[in-house]
Amino acid sequence: MPIITNIDDLKRLHKRRAPKMFFDYAESGSWTEQTFRENTSDFDKIRFRQRVAVDMTNRTTKGSLLGTDYEMPVALAPVGLTGMQNADGEIKAARAAEKFGVPYCLSTMSICSIEDIRQNTSAPFWFQLYVMRDEDFVDNIIQRAKNAGCSALVITVDLQILGQRHKDLKNGLTAPPKLTPKTLLNLSTKWSWGLEMLGTHRRTFRNIVGHAKSVENMSSLHSWTAEQFDPALNWETIAKLKENWGGKVIIKGILDPEDAKEAVKAGADAIIVSNHGGRQLDGALSSIRMLPKIVEAVGGQIEIHLDSGIRSGQDVLKALAMGADGVMIGRAYIYGLGAMGEKGVTTALDIIQKELDTTMALCGKRNISDIDRDILLVPEDFEGRWT
Ligand SMILES: Cc1cc2nc3c(=O)[nH]c(=O)nc-3n(C[C@H](O)[C@H](O)[C@H](O)COP(=O)(O)O)c2cc1C
Fold first, then answer.
1. Residue 42 sits in a domain of what CATH number?
2. 8-state DSSP, 229
3. Residue 383 in domain
4. CA distance 371 to 62
5. What's the CA gap between 140 and 108, in Å, rounded?
6. Whose CA is nearest to atom 1 of ligand 1?
7. What one-character-per-residue DSSP string does 86-104 give?
């Protein structure tokens, strides 16, 4: 077993262990992947101010999100098909999150269902909703999330239509994989993945199959999802969903100050500044670049979380210092899961916490609540002049 010291090590192992179509599904952005690349490279442009001779004893990374205290203000983002990266992946990720003390968010497009997570964990988790045309399905899944005691509904608003990721088309992505000569050849090199997958019955979209009209098996599911994401989604629908849910609502996929203001009007408790990890609008600016303007527009009115591009505890600290109240990580924990299952997710969280803690200390800070813009050196033209 190689010595794992950073998130990139987990990514290399994930690539080796998971079938190509699923690793590629995670490791891709839409079209040219410009936004996907800039999500990470823009973090690199921000630097830290080293401070010395500050008492660094009694440090903590603890922070709160939506009124609940966590080990650090970092949540696991909703990621579709997580249970294809590693058998029962959503259950493993949710367990790792619970043991570590951070929130887990389950995707609508997960392999394990809301009920699977409820039965296999005890901490409340967040549920991410894709708004579908089938209103009965939406009402029903909201009720299922309520029954499972989910503590927040995360409504994703940046995927009314699907961004094109070339690799998924070229690989013929399906869950479970269709056994073509090409995939069989690749699967023949992924024994441990295959054996674990044979050991579980959770191999399809269990939030959907059996719950949506006319989706009883995989073949009908594909046409259903292509037809079902609701292109008519608007702020009125979102306000109604908030009413129907009756609890905390987080709006995910905000990248513009005007939309952030709309989210406040619609009654959101928090927003996630996000471009879906560069998987939707290629050519959009990175989340970290857009963050300051969004903080200026709605900061103090609701919580502002950020995702897209976070690969280290240093990135977490940069986002917090730029004004985010919390962050979500997507690929950073998926690499861990694909590499080593639950243990890999825990390793990813450990790495991020250690990097966050050490960097905080070397910047002269002991508490998350003390983090501010002052610890950073940001290029004057970081946000850019766009007209
Ligand atoms: C493989 C993959 C699948 C995703 N599936 C979903 C999803 O089902 N629902 C959702 O709201 N976001 C989804 N996202 C976006 C993530 O929630 C998150 O916004 C993104 O991963 C953050 O960027 P990062 O991966 O650079 O951390 C997905 C992202 C990835 C990489």
1. 3.20.20.70
2. B
3. no
4. 12
5. 12
6. 26
7. STTHHHHHHHHHHHHT--B
Domain of 300, in residue numbers: 7-377
DSSP string, 100-139: HT--BEE-TT-SS-HHHHHHH--S--EEEEE-BS-HHHHH
Q: Identify the bridge partners of residue 303 per DSSP, sorted by sequence position.
A: 270
Asked whether residue 2 is assigned to any structural domain, the reply reads no
Spatial distance between the Cα atoms of 227 and 347, rounded to a whole number of angstroms? 38
Atom of ligand 1 minimally distant from the CA of 105: 17
Which parts of 206-310 are beta strand (E)? 249-254, 270-273, 303-306
- Rounded Cα–Cα distance for residues 221 and 227 (Å): 10
From 166, 211, 276, 305, active-site residue = 276
Residue 82 CB neighbours (<10 A): 29
pLDDT at 156: 97
Q: Check residue 57 and give its pLDDT.
A: 95
Spatial CB neighbours of 384, under 8 Å, sequence gap ≥ 6:
285, 289
Predicted local confidence at residue 244, as pLDDT:
97
The response to whether residue 307 sits with its C-beta less than 6 Å from ligand 1 reads: yes
How does strand 63-65 pair with strand 68-70? Answer: antiparallel
Convert the pLDDT of each residue in 131-165 to its tens digit: 999 999 999 999 999 999 999 999 999 999 889 99
| Tokens at 82, concatenated | 């997580």
User: Does residue 173 fall inside a structural domain?
Assistant: yes
What is the domain count for the chain? 1
Residues of the chain with pLDDT under 50: none
* pLDDT at position 151: 98
- 254 located within any domain: yes
How many angstroms is it from 277 CA to the middle of ligand 1? 6
Residue 330, marked binder: yes
CA–CA gap between residue 108 and residue 78 (Å, rounded)? 8
CA of residue 363 relative to chain centroid, distance: 27
Tally: H helices and E strands in the chain:
16, 12
Distance CA 327, CA 16 (A): 28
Does residue 166 carry a catalytic annotation? no
pLDDT at 224: 73
pLDDT (tens digit per residue) in 87-102: 999 999 999 999 999 9
